[in-house]
Design a protein that fits this description.
It is globular and about 70 Å long. The longest helix has 12 residues, at 75-86. With 415 residues, it is α+β, with helices and mostly antiparallel strands. The protein has a single domain, classed as Alpha-Beta Plaits (2-Layer Sandwich), CATH 3.30.70.20. The chain contains 10 helices and 19 strands. The chain is 17% helix and 21% strand.
Length: 415
């Protein structure tokens, strides 16, 4: 095992291969506060990539309801339990050790690579067939048991507001240190140099399913009729700018582009020799992840350094969220609920264009309102945010204060 640096857990860790990084990395941010679980993303992916025989159970994109939902069933709970059982030390964070290269502190526990069984390169399990049966199991199920607050109607139809759930949209994380790549004895999975997308070479894959077992997010899936494993390919033809509508510049993946709730933003980040993102304060994803730090990795303690980030839901118990997104949750929610002037403008860019935004500018506007949020008084300004594509051409222009249009009473309300 080699030593590699994982900035999400704030320290070096063990990994099968020596440290190596792509020139650019495909990255996305999901805003869980906006997701309505319409499953448009799920069906867009399904109808594009996994509609064939043998792929019936394959949902490369899925939206699951937390805390009970998951696909395959209980994938995260089972992995966390496996880690707790096999770790020689407590699986704990030390957030007091924040610093350069350690934005969330240091994870003092052990990753799935550091607890790998003898002869393996990652700790994991292979879900049984019944775990792949229903991708929407426990959809819209809130916390609480029968007769408890939050679960049932009580007091003549009054629903206690202690119930909670939220929607978690998931795709392959195209990890910096992919468990599927580490686990495969045939070296079938690989990470592309040009964009960091993780693919599986179908000619090299012999269907050992080690990738299925190793991936903690369970996004590598076995196809029985071809006896090979498959996974999300990041819609790489669109990322390469080969879509007929792309005009030669990178476009967002299908699941990103169709999002009705406007929860998603995808782009490419330049990667330095040290594996970290090159400083780029004019890139919206850099602003969200590195500067404002409102978007966090999913289960960073797994050690894979995932490249899909989430803005945590505001209403969910913090203890649950810290387990899922790490110790940066409290600061992230505070910044999101009381956004800076810059962050408020950048949030308008979610799902603003199918073409990836590589740079943004903000034109300052006039003040239009005074508000009090969480006890903080602040001013709101009608700023304009402008997004540019890879060729530095303007592709979108939006205002923070959306205009209100009232239809003339003399006009018909039907088309």
């Amino acid at each position: 095992m080699s030593k590699v640096y994982n900035w999400q857990i704030g320290r070096e860790m063990e990994y099968r291969y020596p440290e190596a990084h792509p020139k650019r990395q495909l990255v996305a941010v999901f805003n869980t506060n906006r997701c309505i679980a319409c499953q448009t993303c799920t069906m867009a992916c399904k109808s594009t990539w996994t509609f064939n025989q043998g792929q019936e159970h394959m949902w490369w994109n899925n939206v699951e309801t937390k805390p009970y939902g998951g696909y395959p069933h209980n994938w995260d709970a089972k992995t966390l339990e496996l880690m707790e059982k096999n770790s020689p030390v407590p699986q704990e964070w030390d957030p007091t050790k924040k610093g350069e290269g350690r934005p969330y502190g240091v994870f003092d526990g052990r990753t799935i690579f550091e607890m790998a069984p003898f002869g393996r390169y990652a700790l994991g399990y292979e879900p049984p067939p019944e775990d792949w049966e229903a991708p929407n199991l426990y959809e819209d199920t809130p916390a609480g048991g029968k007769g408890e607050k939050g679960k049932t109607l009580q007091g003549g139809g009054l629903l206690e507001h202690e119930s909670w759930f939220f929607y978690l949209a998931r795709v392959c994380n195209h990890c910096t240190y992919p468990a599927c790549v580490a686990a495969c004895p045939r070296q079938a999975p690989y990470k592309r140099q040009e964009d960091g997308i993780v693919l599986i070479n179908q000619e090299r894959c012999w269907g050992y399913r080690m990738c299925v077992q190793a991936c903690p997010y369970k996004k590598a899936m076995y196809r029985p009729d071809t006896r090979t494993s498959e996974k999300c390919i990041g819609c790489y033809p669109r990322v390469e700018g080969k879509d007929p509508e792309s005009d030669g510049v990178p476009m967002e993946a299908r699941c990103m582009a169709v999002c009705i709730g406007k929860i998603r933003m995808q782009g490419l980040m330049e990667i330095g020799d040290d594996g970290d993102w090159i400083n780029n304060p004019h890139h919206p994803l850099y602003t969200l992840v590195k500067e404002e730090m409102v978007a966090l990795p999913l289960y960073p303690q797994f050690g894979t350094q995932p490249n899909i980030y989430y803005i945590p839901p505001r209403w969910v118990p913090r203890e649950y969220l810290r387990q899922m997104f790490g110790p940066g949750v409290d600061d992230a929610i505070e910044r999101y609920t009381n956004p800076s002037r810059k962050l408020l403008a950048v949030l308008q860019l979610f799902r603003a264009s199918e073409k990836m935004i590589f740079r943004y500018e903000i034109e300052e506007g006039k003040k239009y309102r005074d508000v009090t949020i969480g006890g903080h008084k602040r001013e709101l300004f009608d700023d304009t945010v402008i997004g540019y594509d890879e060729k530095d051409r303007e592709i979108i222009r939006l205002k923070v204060h959306e205009p209100l249009h009232i239809r003339d009473k003399g006009l018909s309300n039907s088309i």
